Structure formats: structure tokens, C-alpha cells
């Protein structure tokens, strides 16, 4: 194999979590509303509003954005008090979401597990690049794969490692460093415009699998947009990937 084709040979798949590995956002939305109720807030995020709010990556950032929308003088609160209150809401939300996932309310999207197994079997590395919290990843993948789920991934980037959220490429750049691979030897999987922009800004080709919250997003620049991964195999990925980097 020539040097240039080796340099572009697909070596790793980097997966977003929410909306890509699983349709999680309905469970996230319910968990946010549960937390608001527990905190005595009269906030209710319905699907239409949550679809808008998903333009803000990161649960804490999303809460702050909404709070400023409904209560402009929230800025008057001192920063520490505001942070503490948002942190408490997000703690309650994450506990509610973890409970929902552990109760089996969320399953992986079609084709995800099979494609991961196929890639691992062919010697590719797997990584995760998400803006969600680490406990959410563990709950989802422990339930879907088992307690040894972590062994399948060479690297994980999440809200705890990459505080600058998508569409900033920070989490994807961290994964390329962790994998010690150039973008041309990797492929990203995303569900949203923010995620596509983050992966693209990191130099990655990105396969998009939209969902009901993101179907209306702009996916210009995606390697491919497919309904889900049920009809996608490694041979197909290698063909699309090599055509992108030709
Ligand atoms: C989607 C997000 C996350 C989730 C909520 O992450 O933006 O904020 O909506 O999870 P992904 P947190 O990059 O996997 O699509 O409340 O833990 O942020
Ligand atoms: Mg996503």
C-alpha cells in the first residue's frame, strides 16, 4: 500500500453520544423538567422549546441560556450564587436522567453496536466525543454493552475533559491527540449541526444520522447524511472515507 494511501487509511471511529449513539434527548428533556419541579421552579421545557434550546450544547449552559431568556435580571445575581443554583439543578437533572437510563428508557440506535463490533474486529480504535456529562455516558453504555463497556474505547472526551462545548472543536481535537492519529485516518459520527461543525473544524469527515430533534438542522459539509447506521458497514465507511480524502 502506497505511503499516501496508508496515511489516509481509516483507523478510528469517533462517536458523539446524545442523538447519535442513542435517541437520548427526550429522556434528557424529561430529566430537566423533573429537576425544575424538584427545585420549585415553574419552568417546563416542551419538545418545541427543547428543540430550540438544543442549539446550546451542554446542560448547564442550556439552563443559564434559558434563565437569561425568562429572567433578564438574573445577571444581577452574583456569579457564584448563579453557578451554585445551576449546578444544583443540573445535579438533580443528571440523577433523574441516570435513573431513566438505568430503568431501560433509552436504547442504542439501530446499527450502532454492530458497527462498533465490526470496527473493533477489524482492528480499528473507537473513541467518544460528547458534550454530555461522564455519568450519562457510563449509564447509557453500561446498560447497552455491560459493565466492561469502557474496554471498547481507546479514549473518551466529555463535559469533564472539554469544557468548551460544541460547535467548538475542543473535544474532537482532544480525541485526535489521545488516539495519536491525524483527522484523515479517523471518521466522526454526529446528529446535530453543532456536532458537525465541531468535528469539521477539527478536520474530520463526519457521517450524520439526524433524529427528530435535529432533522431540520443544516448538515452542509457532512461526509454523508443517513437515517441511521442500520445499512452502514465498514466496507461502505472505508469507501466514503477514502473518497472524501482523495
Ligand atoms: C448533547 C448535549 C448535552 C445533552 C445533555 O451532547 O448537548 O448537553 O443534551 O447532557 P452530545 P448534559 O455532544 O453527546 O450530542 O446535561 O450532561 O449536558
Ligand atoms: Mg449529539
Describe the overall structure.
The protein is globular, with a radius of gyration of 18 Å. Strand 2 (125-129), helix 7 (134-145) and strand 3 form a beta-alpha-beta unit. Helix 4 (59-70) crosses helix 5. By secondary structure, the protein is of the alpha/beta class. The longest helix has 24 residues, at 79-102. The mean pLDDT is 96. It has helices at 3-7, 25-38, 47-53, 59-70, 79-102, 112-121, 134-145, 170-179, 193-201, 234-244, and strands at residues 12-15, 125-129, 155-157, 186-190, 205-208, 224-225. 46% of the residues lie in helices and 9% in strands. Strands 3-2-1-4-5-6 form a 6-stranded parallel β-sheet, sandwiched between helices. It is built from 10 helices and 6 strands. It folds into 2 domains: 3-23 and 108-244, Rossmann fold, CATH 3.40.50.1000; 26-102, Putative phosphatase, domain 2 (DNA polymerase, domain 1, Orthogonal Bundle). The structure holds xylulose-1,5-bisphosphate and magnesium ion (MG).
